[in-house]
Amino acid sequence: MSNLRRAGNLIWVLAVFVLASCGGGGKPAPDLFSLPVTYPIGKKASAIAAHDMNGDAFPDLVVISSQDNALHYFEGVGDGTFKTPFVLKTGREPIALAAADFNGDDIPDIAVANYGDGNVSVILGQKDGVFKLKEPVTVGRLPTALAAGDFNNDEKTDLAVALRFDKLVVLLGTGDGTFKVGEAYNASGAPSSVVAGDYDGDKNIDLAVAFGAVEADYIRVFPGKGDGTFKNPERIPGGHQSSFIAQHDMNGDRALDLFASSSVRDSVTLFLNDGKGKFQKMPDAAGEKGPEFVVAGEFTGDRIPDLVVCNQDDGSISMLEGRGDGTFVFPHNNYPVGRHPRAMTSADFNRDGLLDLALVLYDEGLMEILMRKSGASSPAEG
Asked: Which of 198, 197, 323, 308 has the alpha carbon at shortest distance from 261?
């Protein structure tokens, strides 16, 4: 172990001691995660995704670096470690990615939104674990986010791309890894993040969008018609100036709920779905400074979904322990990570049945892996 790694681990241990001693009104933070292991990546990494890219049943990691204009593919070994990354050039300033099968060969592919080029790169996975870059698809000025789903029920994966100022563009998959540009929708309010799911139970994929404009105190849901087009969006109050949106069933009713983070308000807003596409805004949950990416999953051993929040302004992650009804245990628990964590994902990297975390440090050019400790749990309170 290098001196730098030893020093970093010592700092992490000291920070855990301080937070456990002083945070949460004197309640020690549960010891859920092992010391982080770091991997070098390009600086200004803007997105990370966990996906089994080579069919070996081990989660791999895909990271994009906007400064290096590159995609880094880390093959998972299955014990929580990763091989030296394969690096592939993308377009200029890649900012968002999605992994799905775009050409029907049952091998995952990757779509990357290139902010600087106004297009989407399509990278096809191959049987030998290598990638093949297709011609990019032009979508318009400054794409900020994308989501994959079958929007027209033809069993071919499509894409929805948010453009920075006021557009949502649909790309319809042809089944061979290429896309046709479909409808464009008004999405005024600076769309910052998009997610795809069936929210109203009609078997058609819908889109949910977060907005980052100063006056944006809402999210919007675009109900899908099932033919590749979408109805007029429903405006749902809440989620002021949100930077990220994601989905998960947080209360066990088999309906996808939505949650959005606001780095301006230092908060996370949960929207509970009634199963018919009607959402109830829950009271905002407090975050630390600059919450952005949020992942949902069971982290405390009680079989109830929790939220883990990536706080980019204070070098920490927060674990919001779910009660199973759309509310969270107060106070939340904080864990230190490196400086300026930008994006985060979760998966079981060592196949022990526990969710682990991977996050990227935007200015440091590093990826951190935080493994869940076996047997660690946090009893709910209040």
From this structure: 308
Closest residue by Cα to residue 147 from 93, 194, 90: 194
Contact 303/289 with Cβ under 8 angstroms?
no
Residue 341, preceding peptide bond in cis (omega within 30° of 0): no
Strands 158-163 vs 167-173: parallel, antiparallel or unpaired: antiparallel
Neighbouring residues of 173: CB distance < 8 A, sequence distance ≥ 6: 102, 156, 157, 158, 159, 179
Q: Containing H/E element for 168?
A: strand 167-173
Taking the C-alpha atoms of residue 196 and residue 199, their distance in angstroms, rounded to an integer, is: 9
Q: Which token pair is 90? A: 């993308």
What's the pLDDT tens digit per position in 7-65? 444 444 444 434 433 344 335 678 899 999 999 998 899 999 999 999 999 999 999 99
Query: What is the pTM assigned to this prediction?
Result: 0.90
Tell me the C-alpha distance between 292 and 242, whole Å: 8
Q: Are 72 and 42 in contact (CB under 8 A)?
A: yes
32 token code pair: 């859920």
What is the phi/psi pair of residue 36, to 5°? -70, 145
